[in-house]
Amino acid sequence: MRITHKMITNNMMSNINRNKDLVNKYDEQYTTGKRIQRPSDDPIIAVRALKLRTTLSELEQYVEKNIPDALSWMEVSESGLKNINTILTNINTHCNQGSNDTLSVSDRNSIVENLTQFKEQIYKECNANSAGRYVYAGYKTNSSITYDTTSQDVKYDITEKFDGTDIKKISKVIGGYTSSDYDSANPDKDKFAMAPTLIENIYRLRLSYDKMDDVKMTADDITYTETTTDPDTGKEVKETFPISNLGVTVENKISTDVDAYQPQENQIIYLKDTGELIMDAGMYEKLRLQGEDAISVSYHKTNFSEGDCRPEHFFTCTSTDQYGVVRNYEKTQQQIEYEVSFGQSIRVNTQITDVIGTDVARDIDEILDRVNQVLDVENQLANVNQLLSNSDTTTDQKDALNLLKEQLTTEHVLKSKLMRDAFESGIGNSEKYQAQVNIAIADLGSRYSRVQLTQSRLEDQRIDYTELKSENEDVDLVDAYIKLTSAENIYTASLSSVAKISKNSLLDFI
Question: What are the tens digits of pLDDT across the range 364-395?
């Protein structure tokens, strides 16, 4: 075959271009540090790179965003729970002190002041928030657990549920006098003949609020549950009935009425000012075996003070604002979950109903009320003693004052006993609330540990996938430099060879 000059030239140009392409390829690898510059260079490497980059992107989303946000939420929640637990410990300590018989007036005032502060602070902790989101509020993260200011514009129709164990036996002192009942102009000692008495075996179902709206409660507002057997299926069926089915009537009163704590047979007394349902032993026997959430009480409240709990976080209720806008709230488990790994979500929130209810505030308010009653009687006794110390006091006046003092002393003894009982109840109740808080802390802690373990695993995965990605995409710079240098030498040699050959032309053969 005859080799023409054109064939030699074409071959030389082809070889030069191929060598130049190799120089360009290794130069791109060396300068970019990547094996390929486009998918067509190596489709297998390109496909694997896409998969590894997608996985790494997801890992970074979990490790750098989702998990830190979840941990932050849970850390705020845990801090609040531990603070609540500490406050309950302090409440327990003060209740122990308050049950002491030898307390002075100043000691009691100090305890009352501290308990008031504890009550306020325990619900301040419930308003803990993370990045503007209230962590104990379930799905309603823009709504605080308690009122920041007084609210009188929104009416709530509340349905609160109880079981038989929520009905407690209480005692009450009825009767009694004050120093203002004494008339120096007409010192009739017979006026103080009736001694204060202690009524026991009163059964009470305490609602979560006091100072209710002036709306009468009826027997239809209180329901109970009965369990029957379906004759067709043989399965147990729970049915709800109004309390009137038991032949019960509801009487509306206020706590200052003479017979407010003396219910008749088959009668429940509703005290709207204190938020109490009072019943006798017979009524208690009918309801004491009711199971969880089997007793339901519906009532109405509009006036809320600063620090009061918002009903929507605790109960099934309906609110109606001043413009007539109605909102319905259902008491449900509201779990906020974060996706912390591939196909793995975990609950980050702790709902307020899992931590604490409104009973803490009601218990402390009751202790404060009992203490204030004792302090009031002590003040009345001080006034009577001052009147007796007056040298101008007549015999009749002294007789009336001494009898008044005797009755006040009796009242003081009875109310002091109730005060100590309230403090002792506070000891047991605070321990019960602490147990519930400790369960919430333990549950939150276990979920927090799971997120930390997941975080550790994903960080290890991210390191592994980063190495795989580097092995798949990155070039060895030393090897790339050697190849680039070799390609450059070959390219230079080919140019030199072409220069020598291209000097010959047709004239050289003539």
Answer: 999 889 888 988 998 999 999 998 888 788 88
C-alpha 373 chain-centroid distance: 34
Q: Is pLDDT of 320 > 70?
A: yes
Residue indicated by tokens 């808080």? 437
Pairing verdict, β 249-253 and 155-162: unpaired
Rg (CA), the chain: 41
CA distances from 143 to 134, 311, 416, 420 (A): 7, 11, 41, 38
Could you tell me what percentage of the chain is helix, strand and coil, using 3-state DSSP and rounding each to the nearest 5?
55, 20, 30
What is the distance of C-alpha 229 from the center of its chain? Answer: 38
Cα 307 vs. chain centroid, distance in angstroms?
Answer: 15
- Residue linked to tokens 């103080």: 192
Residue with tokens 């795989």: 468
CA 433/CA 356 separation, integer angstroms: 7
Q: What pLDDT digit, counting tens, does each position of 290-318 carry? A: 988 899 999 999 999 999 999 999 999 99
Query: How far apart (Å, rounded) are the C-alpha atoms in residues 272 and 215?
Result: 9
pLDDT tens across 84-122, in order? 999 999 999 999 888 876 777 678 778 888 998 999 999
Pull the structure tokens for residue 39: 């998918």
Residue 217 CB burial class (10 angstroms; 0-12, 13-18, ≥19): buried
Beta bridge partners of 199: 172
Bridge partner residues of 202 (DSSP): 170
DSSP reduced 3-state for 65:
helix
CA distance 358 to 370: 19
Alpha carbon distances (Å) from 109 to 69, 113, 412: 45, 6, 16
